Amino acid sequence: MANFSFLRDKPEFALFAADCIYAEEALYQSPDSCIKLTRTALDAAVKWLYLHDRNIFKTRSESLFELLGDISFATVIGRRLLRKIHHCRKLGNQAIHNEKSFTQEDAVKCLSELFEFVQWLDQRYGKNYTPRTFDAEEIFAAPSLKTEICGIKMNSPVLAASGTFGFGEEFADFVDLEKLGGVMVKCITLAPRDGNSGVRIAETPSGMLNCIGLENPGVEKFLAEILPRIQNKFNVIVNISGASVEDYGELAKLLDVSGVAALELNISCPNVKDGGIIFGTNPKMAAAVTSAAKKNTGKPVIVKLSPNVTDITEIARAVESAGADCVSLINTLMGMEINVNTWKPTLGNITGGLSGGAIKPVAVRMVWQVAQAVKIPIIGMGGIRTAEDAVEFFLAGASAVAVGTANFANPNVTMKIIDDLENYLARQNLRSVSEIIGKVVF
């Protein structure tokens, strides 16, 4: 909730934090319930104070009536705040005994009095105290999906993943592009690429295999023809790939232009100068690529992590140390399919990247692990098909999500996820996604 949500990050106030949050949530049910719970929260806070700092009270009684009447308590807390505490408890008693009906205005006033006492406690006993003001209007504000990552203002925390959404314009007839947080456009390389030959996509249970081979028009054509068409329609996040560390630096420099919101480094590619080692599987290589890009651009640099590693947190820490502004994960898992009639691999490239719903549990697990290891924001991806899927990633620690393979099955899926996400927040009495980021409960 808007006003008391900060208590979730205050373990020192665990004795009364939940009661305060429940009291504010109850306002959406009825003013009477809110006032009853507000009094419960207030009593719990007074009891916490008595247990935590008995020097404030001369009395050794645990009776709330006697504690609130203790002259030493009144001297320390001040008569103005004490009057508010008594008023709040009075309304609470009236609500408990059904002596009168209350309005939302009564409940909001009661909440504000509780809030002022909690702020007093936080200032005196809390860790990392931050001054806060009770915001009555925010309580009734509609949930907002607006968010900001690495300085990029987004209308929602839902993006389209690279390689599944073209350059965005292809989906203009199906989605409201402005509602997206951004589009991670099709991967761009220095020179044009035709991609792999043979079969490049194969459907699998709950997903698909692909080996497109980074087919794209090259950076020169992208800058000259494509970027001018899309730059004012959504946040353009350019996914880039290279065959060497130097390639990433050069691409970052060329794309350091107006109209590009950020760069996403695809490091699931082989470094041809170093025997074909995959950049994303080696911490030193991943850091080198990140550093090269950062040195050549003023844009935020997002590093897309490969799941095909033993410890993804090691790679995440390496790119964070090299200056990455954000990480996105996961990229596809390596897979293979064999035709039992021909005895030959289905894909022309033999192996390919597995994506879709089948990989979501792996992706959620890796996002949670990385969230414990780094401080930079995370964009979660991998098998997201519904708002509930997206919420899992937020709870695991992602600040935004990207939808990929689901776009092939339903080109309007991002819009449904955004609409359903707003409904989810409203049902949960939440004002924004930020209230659930990393809040998985163990």
Describe the structure concisely for a colleague.
This protein is an alpha/beta fold and 442 residues long.
Task: Tag the structure with descriptive keywords.
single chain; 442 residues; alpha/beta; Four Helix Bundle (Hemerythrin (Met), subunit A); 2 domains; 8-stranded parallel β-barrel; 4-stranded antiparallel sheet; 18 strands
Description:
This protein has 442 residues and is α/β, with parallel strands linked by helices. It has two domains: 5-139, Four Helix Bundle (Hemerythrin (Met), subunit A), CATH 1.20.120; 147-435, TIM Barrel, CATH 3.20.20.70. It contains 15 helices and 18 strands. Strands 3-4-7-8-11-12-17-18 form an eight-stranded parallel β-barrel, surrounded by seven helices. A hairpin with a 4-residue loop joins strand 14 (338-339) and strand 15. Helix 2 packs parallel to helix 6 and helix 10 (283-295) packs parallel to helix 11. The protein is elongated.
At the fourth level of CATH, the homologous superfamily of the largest domain is Aldolase class I
CATH class of the largest domain: Alpha Beta
CATH topology label of the largest domain: TIM Barrel
Percentage of β-strand residues: 15-25%
| Count of separate structural domains | 2
User: Mean pLDDT across all residues, rounded?
Assistant: 93
Instruction: Show unreliable segments.
Output: none
Please list the strands of the largest sheet in the order they lie side by side.
3-4-7-8-11-12-17-18
Main sheet attributes: strand count, strand direction, barrel closure: 8 strands, parallel, barrel
What portion of residues is helical? 40-55%
